[in-house]
Amino acid sequence: MSSFTKLDTQKKKRANDIDLKGIIRVIKKRLWIIIVIAIITTGLGAYYGQKNNTPIYQASSRIIIEAPTENRNTLQVIIKDTAVLDKVVKELDLPQSPEELSGQITVGSIENSQVVSISVTDKDPERAAEIANTTARVFKEVIPTIMEFNGVRLLSDAKVNSWPINQKGDRWPLIGLIAGIVIGVGFIFLLDSLDDSLRTENEIEEILELPVLGRVPKQSKRNLNKRVNKEVKLEARGETSGFN
After folding, report:
1. Residue 84 burial by CB count (10 A; 0-12/13-18/19+): exposed, middle or buried?
2. Residue 4 has what pLDDT?
3. How far apart are CA 189 and CA 124, in angstroms?
4. How far apart are CA 191 and CA 144, in angstroms?
5. What radius of gyration do the chain's Cα atoms show?
6. Which of 2, 58, 85, 214 lies at a 20 to 30 A Cα distance from 161?
7. Total-model pTM
8. What is the structure's pLDDT at 7?
9. Residue 183 to residue 186: CA distance in whole angstroms
10. CA nearest 19: which of 27, 185, 217?
11. Cα separations (Å) of 227 from 58, 173, 176, 231, 239?
12. Which of 60, 240, 32 is nearest to 160 (CA)?
């Protein structure tokens, strides 16, 4: 590799280092903006998730249908029929119609066995369990009059499940946090692009096309006051000293 190639590589590496340092400097300078925006968006995300994500609970009861697969499939369909659900609605005094209640119920055979699960979803966990148990019991009572079939047995009652099935973690606050960070970073770089003040020696050299010969170090007000007080004391004793 020639000396010119090495020099060019070093310049590119130095430019990349400067760009990275510049990005870090811009972010550190206005880091508070990112923090404020992230807090706001996280709060909005939590509020949105709480307001628009109504918890839904599920409860399941189990019955045994002692019938061949074909007959069992027919019997499972009848569980969600109005002949059964109309009695459930009246008995529990539910606000929904039998057709609406049918949309809350899922019926399925467990592992192709004679055990059938009646699962109910509802906004109230206790009501979900109550509907599942009542549906199983009413179905057992009315099926002999519909199909002259007595091979239904209650296996297990539904238990109240206090954990909603539609809230798998609080994702909206996390989404709000990520969005806030992205928005905050974008905003501070927008502000930086609108800032036309000169901040580095390289910017001065590029604009003036002249080399920077010296730099005045930044003095804090506290240090400056100390040096001024020191000069006053020296002058009071008849000594002199300049700012170095």
Report:
1. buried
2. 43
3. 48
4. 77
5. 38
6. 85
7. 0.56
8. 41
9. 5
10. 27
11. 75, 51, 49, 6, 14
12. 60
> Inter-axis angle of helices 82-92 and 125-147, to 10 degrees?
130
HSE (CB half, 13 Å, CA atoms) of 24? 6
User: Could you state, in chain order, the average pLDDT of each consecutive group of 10 residues for the chain (244 residues)?
Assistant: 47 54 82 92 85 86 92 93 95 94 94 94 95 96 92 94 77 89 91 70 60 60 65 63 47
Q: What is the pLDDT of residue 189?
A: 87
CA-CA-CA-CA dihedral for 123, 129, 131, 135, to nearest 10: 150
Q: What local confidence, expressed as pLDDT, does residue 93 receive?
A: 95
User: Residue 152, exposed/middle/buried by CB under 10 A (0-12, 13-18, 19+)?
Assistant: buried
- Whether 57 and 165 have beta carbons less than 8 Å apart is answered as yes
Instruction: Tell me the two tokens of residue 210.
Output: 């002249």
Would you state the structure tokens that stand for residue 169, as one six-digit string? 């973690």
CB contact set of 138 (below 8 Å; sequence gap of 6+):
84, 87, 88, 91
* Residue listed under structure tokens 């055990």: 115
The tokens for 185 are 């970073």
pLDDT, residue 3, reads 46
